[in-house]
Specification:
Elements lengths: L2 H12 L17 H12 L2 H6 L2 H4 L4 H30 L3 H9 L1 H30 L18 H19 L2 H29 L5 H6 L16 H10 L11 H4 L11 H24 L2 H8 L8 H9 L1 H29 L5 H16 L3 H4 L1 H29 L5 H5 L5 H20 L8 H22 L1
Helix pairs in contact: 2-9, 2-13, 2-16, 5-11, 5-13, 6-7, 7-8, 7-15, 7-16, 7-17, 7-19, 8-16, 8-17, 9-13, 9-16, 13-15, 15-16, 16-17, 19-21, 19-22, 21-22
């Protein structure tokens, strides 16, 4: 056994047996059932209560919403199945260690730190969502759309308590995260389904035509929102989780899969979660829009907003409160787990348990600030746009390295700590397409795919040149 292999085993043992720096062994692989519950729970989750109302505020039509979501979510499933899962089962490495082999230790350290922090912010938004449910019995003032800082001591105590519980569960490793999601996801899915049915009754829907008429031919967007068309819905729903699939973050999850076909389990997340749950939340928001409070805001030229907890409580009572609490929980759990892996890649000899506790602490602090949840849609779009092109580096190397004659895992093979080809490919792709988005007012999600393709192609070109001259 080489000294390198011995060191890897020692590091893996110290890290808590999560195989952060070694391929997952055959004995630890899991069947598709382990992923089904996790994806259903993670994507029928807290974010859905925030995202669902978006489609009413953007004035989308019934056809654009219902058919657009069908297509967009299917494209997301294909991305998970044929890109993420395919690469994951071949290498069985975390995203962070795979990148280290390609990019070098110094370059990937910056990526891991940024990625981990962004994951913490996303998890913090979900802690905020859960807190809006827990705060109902305490008559806690709910955060408004414009709130950025904590609005009282009760809010702070509730967020801290939820964050502590979620962090401990995430720190116990993948098995605990998966089990928690499997236990909770059926309750969450049932809650969204019941809430949608109740909301339909509250809206007086008696036929499919009445249901279709909720969106009809569309309307003018609310103040501060842009008008969504069919392609806005398709592309946005495809790349709502760009960081996870085309960005390759879920390599860290699917490395445990026995077969790449486990990638099809993301259907549970996309169609139970992103389809049924988004529409259900949209219907709950439609009920809220008919209230005198919302009508007064609309009359004054504002955009009505509502915290997820009260919105669900208004529809299905205390069960709605439980659903919102668990929904935020099941999203925050795997997100903090991923953040812990990112931090652990920076500190490989540190226990995964403790780096995940650190990640959970950062997420909890972020959860104290409602701005992360209130601006979630913009944050998710930007987050995916930043990270997705990095995933193209892994994908293009995996599928095209041999064809184009470049060395796989070049940083590891050449013993370099900073692969300039990676940085130049990402920086150019990000810079050019972000400039196009801002300068020409192009919907950010529309340029995510071009930026991803550009980064992959440029990486191959730069690698071919730099490796030949090295």
């Amino acid at each position: 056994m080489t000294q390198y292999s011995i060191e890897e085993e020692i590091i893996d043992e110290a890290a808590g047996g999560e195989f952060e720096r070694t391929p997952v062994p055959q004995s630890k692989l899991k069947s598709w059932k382990s992923f089904l519950g996790m994806y259903a729970g993670e994507h029928a989750a807290g974010t859905e209560f925030v995202i669902g109302p978006l489609f009413l505020t953007t004035g989308v039509s019934a056809f654009d919403l219902i058919i657009g979501l069908l297509l967009g979510n299917f494209l997301a499933v294909l991305s998970w199945r044929f890109l993420t899962a395919e690469v994951a089962v071949k290498n069985r490495l975390t995203l962070y260690y795979q990148l280290e082999k390609i990019c070098g230790k110094k370059l990937v350290t910056g990526y891991n730190l940024a990625n981990g922090i962004l994951f913490c912010f996303l998890a913090g938004a979900m802690i905020t969502v859960s807190a809006t449910a827990v705060g109902i019995p305490f008559d806690m003032p709910m955060p408004k759309l414009t709130d950025t800082t904590p609005n009282g001591l009760t809010w702070i105590i509730i967020v801290l308590a939820i964050g502590a519980v979620i962090s401990i569960i995430a720190a116990r490793g993948y098995d605990t995260v998966s089990k928690a999601s499997n236990y909770m996801s059926p309750i969450i899915v049932l809650g969204f389904l019941i809430a949608g049915i109740v909301a339909i009754n509250q809206l007086g829907v008696a036929s499919f035509a009445d249901f279709w008429a909720i969106w009809g031919e569309g309307s003018e967007p609310f103040p501060g929102q842009i008008k969504y068309t069919f392609w806005h819905v398709v592309i946005w729903s495809w790349f709502a989780n760009a960081a996870m699939h085309v960005g390759m973050s879920d390599l860290s999850v699917f490395r445990f899969a026995k077969k790449a076909s486990s990638g099809w389990t993301t259907i549970a997340g996309m169609y139970v979660g992103h389809y049924m749950a988004w529409i259900s939340a949209c219907l709950m928001y439609a009920v809220y829009l008919k209230t005198p409070e919302a009508q007064a805001i609309v009359a004054a030229g504002g955009a009505p907003s509502v915290a997820p907890g009260p919105m669900a409580y208004n529809t299905i009572g205390i069960f709605g409160v439980i659903v919102v609490l668990l929904a935020g929980w099941t999203t925050a759990n795997p997100t903090i787990y991923r953040a812990g892996l990112a931090f652990q890649a920076i500190m490989p000899k540190t226990s995964t348990f403790w780096v995940t506790i650190i990640a959970g602490s950062v997420a909890t602090i972020a959860g104290l600030f409602p701005a992360f949840a209130m601006q979630l849609l913009d944050f998710v779009a930007l987050y995916g746009f930043i990270l997705a092109p990095v995933g193209a580096i892994i994908v293009f190397e995996h599928f095209f390295a041999k064809q184009y004659g470049i060395i796989k895992n070049y940083a590891e093979q050449a013993n370099i700590k900073f692969n300039k080809s990676v940085l130049f490919a990402w920086a150019l792709s990000f810079g050019i397409f972000y400039f196009i988005s801002v300068q020409f007012d192009v919907f950010l999600s529309f340029v995510t795919l071009p930026a991803w393709l550009s980064c992959g192609v440029l990486f191959l070109i730069f690698s071919k040149f730099s490796q030949k001259s090295a």
